[in-house]
Amino acid sequence: MSFLILIVGFALLIKGADVFVEGASSIAKRFNIPPMLIGLTIVAMGTSAPEAAVSVSSSLAGQNDMSIANVIGSNFFNILIVLGVSAIIAKLPVEKNTIKKDTPFLLFISALLVVLGINLNLSRFDGLILLILFVFFLVSMIKSNLGQKDCDISTSESAIAIEVTESEAISLPKTLVICLIGIVGIVWGGDLVVDSATKIATAFGMSTNLVGLTIVAMGTSLPEFVTSVIAVRKGETEIAIGNVIGSNIFNILLVLGLAAIINPMTISIFALIDAVFMTLITILLYIFIKKNNCLNKIHGFILISIYLAYMCYTIIR
């Protein structure tokens, strides 16, 4: 029964995020907010909504292990599986900004998370630091992209802007209802996932850290996985890496920042080890794209192999 509830929770999370993005984008258009700005904020945050809902719900419920494991596990999955599978499907070229700015910034905040958690605790002050960095990243990203000429806008951002622009006009009352339904779906789905995952962990003698790192992390990363794979199959290969890098940055700064402020988090030694591993695979990703300006099939197989090996390690440890 708990597995069925878990699946229902994931469905509510993903559909709720999709509905919320649609409604919020419609509202933004009514107030003449540029499509590019919508794509860089509302749409980007929408793909991280499942992780946010699960981590915040876990934090409120005092399940700190699951809260941080969900974020770290999602980042594992995004880099190793989402990019791994995408690179096997097609060669993934990487934009200059992603190599010079976005990936180094992701590497910096991944290492920062390890430093902040070295005392096996994430305090409200630590959460505030993460949220301040999130605001800095968001503002700098918006300024950078709005300052570009239309011809310089990246493929992924153009795709998002076009998708938002071409969506149907919806009346304001209906839009507000859609947003409300989306929020309810996200919150309710997050609660169901946390409750059912905790019961599964208890029933099988698994730690909440392990469940958060595997089952929950995979489920909340489905939006990124589907978005990237579909984009690659359509030839929009630049979207895959940008989607993953952006999602991982949002997960660390926004999701963990909010969770830590709501309820200071005690970090297990296993979660700290996982955070170190997350930093190492981010370094590996940076080496791959810095050296080759792309991800290819060989890189894809390496990334997937690392994920399978580390998951085996987490299960037997």
UniProtKB/TrEMBL annotation:
Q: Specify where it is mainly localized.
A: membrane
Which Pfam families does the UniProt entry name for this protein? Answer: Na_Ca_ex
Query: Topology versus the membrane, per the UniProt entry?
Result: Multi-pass membrane protein
Where would I find the Sodium/calcium exchanger membrane region domain in this sequence? 2-142, 176-315
Q: Gene3D superfamilies attached here?
A: NCX, central ion-binding region
Q: Which residues form a coiled coil?
A: none
Transit peptide: is it a keyword of this entry?
Answer: no
Carries keyword Metal-binding?
Answer: no
* Keywords, in A-Z order: Membrane, Transmembrane, Transmembrane helix
TM spans (from-to): 68-92, 104-122, 128-146, 172-190, 210-232, 239-261, 267-289, 298-316
Where is the protein localized? Membrane
UniProt xrefs under NCBIfam families: calcium/sodium antiporter (TIGR00367)
Quote the PANTHER family the UniProt record gives.
Answer: INNER MEMBRANE PROTEIN YRBG, SODIUM/POTASSIUM/CALCIUM EXCHANGER
Recorded protein name is Cation:H+ antiporter
Originating organism: Paraclostridium ghonii
